[in-house]
Amino acid sequence: MSFSPEERTDVTVLEMQSDGSSEVIHTACEWLLGRVRVVKAFHQMLIRIVGRDVMDQCMTNCSDVYDDISLEISIKLRAVDKVQSKKITLKVPVIIMETFEDSGLPIQDAVDQANINGKIIWSHDKMRMDANVFRELCADALDSTRLFVHGVLAHRSCKETDVIIMTGEFSSSPLLQESIKSAFSNMRVIIPPNNEHAALVGAVIFAHARLPFKPQCSSSDPQVRSRGKYPPYRHRE
To answer: Please, what is the end-to-end C-alpha distance for the chain in angstroms?
Structure first.
């Protein structure tokens, strides 16, 4: 089984045939899992500190705020594991602090009033955060991704799955790797080098190798579904 947990998490379950070819036996996808949930959790924490009006104003005045936060979260996801005890530093768009402090209240006072006193220090465009706070932000993303994979493996055609291949950017997170390995300890979990590019590299290698592959169209992709039914004489849905 190969899965890529991004904004849209895709899972493909393959069965190796006796002639060396592979056949897709099950596919599934789910939106808004993985990294996007970590970004959402961090965004909600910022709202808790500075208020929704300030965040809405920042998002309106600077369209890059969300993208900057998302990029910073992606970088930190690669560095934080379940045993790290040191504080981590996140870059936060300075416009958030400046917009909030226009009200006359220092940003650190707002942090202290948000019941996270001592766990976060915010100065200009830097936020020093306890590793446990960051792990809490990741909890929903980890749980939802793990439950989704559980649901796929519960499908009757996937009962004999014994290998999980993790691809995609979020799969680079030590927290997700440890979560999947712990939840599926009876399976072999493979994390390819540069796994964020693994699916693309695999597609290129496969195309050049011209290996036998039985065609299979995914009915789980809403974009594909919108194009109409596949001819039953050409494709097995």
So the answer is: 18
